[in-house]
Amino acid sequence: MHGGNVHAIQRQTGIQISTLLDFSANINPLGIPNALLEIMKASLEESVHYPDPDYHRLYESMARFFQCDQDRLVIGNGAAHVIHELLTLLQPQKVLLMAPTFSEYRQALEKCDTTIITLSLSSEETFDLSLDQLEKQLQQGINLLILCNPNNPTGRLISISQMKQVLAMCRDHRCRLLVDEAFIDFTTNESIDSLVKETAHWQELMVIRAFTKIFAIPGIRLGAAVLGDVNLASRVRTHLVPWSVNAVAESMADFLNTQEAANYLSRSVALVTAEREWIFSKLQKIAGLKPVPGSANYLLVALDESAPPVEALQQYLLQHGIMIRNCSNYEGLHHHWFRVAVRRREENQKLIDHLNCFLTQNAQN
Ligand SMILES: Cc1ncc(COP(=O)(O)O)c(C=O)c1O
User: Can you give the residue ranges of the Aminotransferase class I/classII large domain (predicted)?
Assistant: First the structure.
């Protein structure tokens, strides 16, 4: 269902995980920062103790990192954990979701007694959100609107000025707004485009952030929510299972506000921006492929209708040890869509070479 399932690929094909080139999960190609790795290794020694049940140091450090009030924060075992806990506590009656978007919102809502309405984003409009259409949907008594910014899998970013219009609409319609910013750290202007600072002004706003993607720790897990509603934040914190965040993830507190972290973040954005532009320009030149311009560390790509379905491409690439994300199980996409992560140049070059080979071979047949 998700990208990055290297374990399933190893089971099915016998290819060793260490030899796989994984373009299916969107993880920082720089890997775990060295200074963080050292801190985390040291924290393993401390793991005979429980983590602090109140996560004092982590809350303090994260509030400083996000420049938000500590009482707005909820920290959890990855962004997915925070999303599930928040939604199951909220039990919203009527929710508006985009299609395509990240599947976990629906998964979480299926545990609630919720009516889900979907707004289809059109590929002709590069999957951009139309505020007119949104307004019409909100008039139907929606209690919660969920947006992913930048959206997964499209990579499209909603600007801060549009987001403020969305917030105003939500306020008019008494609707909460959950914005998942799991990938915003990879965009050029995170400090401008993120809604975290707006939580001080909008009671209805809930922002999700992930540390798994940007610090390349999906196996360690760490995520957060910053909420406009401090009472809700307090309720979610009490609702969480104690010690949900392990001691290794907890040690992020000692790294987040260091100069090393700041340098790593700016190097990451520079690398991802340059490589995304490079891959995009190469993909555009391959006959039979159409990439969607994106702002994150991945790109959504369409195969021509005349080309074989994405499963054939997936199989072909796998024979060369390359994994891509087949997007046919995203609501609103079909068997000609796939997503690739942005990695380092040598790896990106390998992907482009194999995509070229596949499409040239198929054009000749
Ligand atoms: C949009 C989005 N939000 C949240 C998550 C979950 O992140 P985490 O690994 O921190 O739980 C993902 C994972 O792919 C995602 O794509």
Answer: 20-355
